[in-house]
Amino acid sequence: MQSFEQTLDIKQNLHGKVHPDVSVACHHIGVIKYLLKEYDSALHWHQQALDISVALYGKEHPASATSYFSIAECQGEMQDYDSALESCQQALDIRLKLFGQKSQATSDCYDELEFIRSLKKVCESSLKLQSKNS
Q1: ∠4-23-89 over CA atoms, to 5°?
Q2: Alpha-carbon dihedral sign for residues 100, 102, 105, 109
Q3: Nearest to residue 81, comparing CAs of 113, 109, 54?
Q4: Helix (H, G, I), strand (E, B), or coil: what is residue 100?
Q5: Three-state SS for 18?
Q6: DSSP 8-state code for residue 108
Q7: Using CA atoms, how far apart are residues 69 and 74, in angstroms rounded to an integer?
Q8: What φ, ψ does residue 127 adopt, rounded to 5°?
Q9: Residue 134, pLDDT score
Q10: Residue 36: CB partners within 8 Å, gap ≥ 6?
Q11: Residue extents of the structural domains in the chain
Q12: Nearest-CA neighbor of 77 among 39, 106, 126?
């Protein structure tokens, strides 16, 4: 993890804070944090990657879609299902516009949306059951 943060520092010193390499470094740190189950931190890093991508390319770019998708995954793990659905929908909208229906990236968004909806239903059902038993 330390080497990723050192890489980020070097890239920021070389290129400034708004550069494609800095966005990629933020994304990589976010992925590592996600794998470590540090979802708050992962969300922070993916949001930074998104902010840089939007500043560089605008919202309708593959890098922005990837960041929205990664943010949705973090939000889902944090049980913030409404935000996760919103972020995943943004990723889907971008990917549909850029790649159409028949791309793996678009398919991944549909799968993630369905997964988040399922988790939300399970959580809501569990809450209803708990309130009935109280």
Answers
A1: 120
A2: positive
A3: 113
A4: coil
A5: coil
A6: H
A7: 9
A8: -65, -40
A9: 66
A10: 1
A11: 1-125
A12: 39
- Under DSSP, the state recorded for 80 is -
What is the pTM assigned to this prediction?
0.91
pLDDT in tens, 93-128: 999 999 999 999 999 999 999 999 999 999 888 877
Superfamily of domain 1-125: Tetratricopeptide repeat domain (1.25.40.10)
Per residue in 14-70, pLDDT (tens digit) is 899 999 999 999 999 999 999 999 999 999 999 999 999 999 999 999 999 999 999
Structure tokens at 55: 């500043």
Residue count of the chain:
134
Residue from 94, 89, 83, 80 nearest 114 by CA = 89
Asked if residue 85 has pLDDT above 70, the reply is yes
Largest interatomic CA distance in the chain: 60
Distance CA(12)–CA(112), nearest Å, equals 32
Per-residue pLDDT at 9: 83
Fill in the amino acid letter for 102: K
Count of CB atoms within 10 A of residue 48's CB? 20
